[in-house]
Amino acid sequence: MLNKMRLLTPGPTPLPEKVRLALALDMIHHRKPEFKAVMLEVQQKLRRLFGTSQEVLPLACSGTGALVASMQGLFAPGEKVLVVQGGKFGERWVEIAASHGIAATVLMVPEGCAVEPAAVEAALQADPEIRGVFVQLCETSTGVQHPVREIAAITSKSSALLVVDGISGVGITPCPMDEWQLDCLLTGSQKGLMLPPGLTLLALSPRAWAKAESVKSCNYYFNLPLERANIVKGQTAFTPAIGLLVGLNESMNLFMEAGLENIYRKQWALCSMARTGIEAMGLRLFAPDHFAWGVTSVCMPGWADIQTNPADSSKTPETPGLKASAVLAEAAAKFNVVMAGGQGAFKDRIVRVGHMGWIDWADLAAGLHALYESCNACGAGLDNRASGDYLEKALAAYWRALKNGYII
């Protein structure tokens, strides 16, 4: 009999039954009172999730759409911004800026490492004309969590707005927007919010709204002031993702029933479980220090100096190490566990184990088992002694972390 399919990728994530049932409800019209009631109700819950008193704008698009909306809605062509680039999605900020004629100063960070707040401060001091700082809360391509709280303490005292990509962070790790003084926080539906892809959410601080109002809109669809004017009336500027918003309301009900603190404790515990189990197998973590709570990246055996530039062949062995693609195929075929590889040059060098959203310790235990067995089936030669205790250690770490609580 085939095992239950377990989706352990860093998005999309599994959907709770209550959300799936909400998505199956009859369609409603977006200009009628029934939809307005849903929008006004979900807005209050989103403000609690984001930790803000401001409106949270829903946009019918993928996460990249929210990245574009924040860049084009807050900055005019010719303005300067600072982009933290430590992975594929930091790189995307740079590409979006270039497409809009915005001058991006790139602060390069080795993949697998987090940016130093002091480096951000130094860059702002070196160029007072920088008007925005773009950073990922979680760089999904590497499993790194950047210290946005510390960065916000710097940007809040400057003229630069802080824009945070929380697509793999909101609903997974604490990121109270107003308390931390973030200027823009955005996320997508298919990660911690436990919905299908196709909906993004974006909120701005008062000073970011002042900036948005001063920037001449050059994008007919991504018009943030227009969206805000409609949100207060329980409407959207254009046809919304109606079904996803109905599903979002049910997802937010689950968040409110559980309590945000309990959600974060669970995510922290799953993160601790994954990291402990992977190290107990004898595998190496790609992000050993500043790590995300919703995805854990694992170095495949045999690759030398994996954190260095993979394009530099002098840093790699003559015979490549174990290929992530082979491990992923084995895990899917033999255990019905779906995980993800790396991106770009790290595609075959790391495996990314997702543990965000509607995932529990039993799902993750199955994923760790599939990872261990699949690595060995592909020739990793992990120590057989690990097979007896990596799950025991992982589960002990989970329950210990759940009891003791998380650390920000």
Describe this structure in words.
- It is a single chain.
- The protein is of the alpha/beta class and 408 residues long.
- It folds into 2 domains: 17-258, Type I PLP-dependent aspartate aminotransferase-like (Major domain) (Aspartate Aminotransferase, domain 2, 3-Layer(aba) Sandwich), CATH 3.40.640.10; 260-404, Aspartate Aminotransferase, domain 1.
- Helix content is 42%, strand content 15%.
- The strands form 4 sheets. The protein has a 7-stranded mixed β-sheet with strand order 2-10-9-8-5-3-4, sandwiched between helices.
- α1 runs antiparallel to α10 (242-258).
How would you summarize this macromolecular structure in one to three sentences?
With 408 residues, the chain is an alpha/beta fold.
Highest-level CATH class of the largest domain: Alpha Beta
Count of runs of 4 or more consecutive helical residues: 14
Strand order of the largest sheet: 2-10-9-8-5-3-4
Termini gap:
42 Å
CATH superfamily of the largest domain: Type I PLP-dependent aspartate aminotransferase-like (Major domain)
Helix content: 40-55%
Morphology call: globular
Number of strands: 15
The secondary-structure element order is: EHHEHEHEHEEEHEHEEHHHHEEHEEEHH
Task: Name a few traits of the molecule.
single chain, 408 residues, alpha/beta, Aspartate Aminotransferase, domain 2, Aspartate Aminotransferase, domain 1, 7-stranded mixed beta sheet, 42% helix
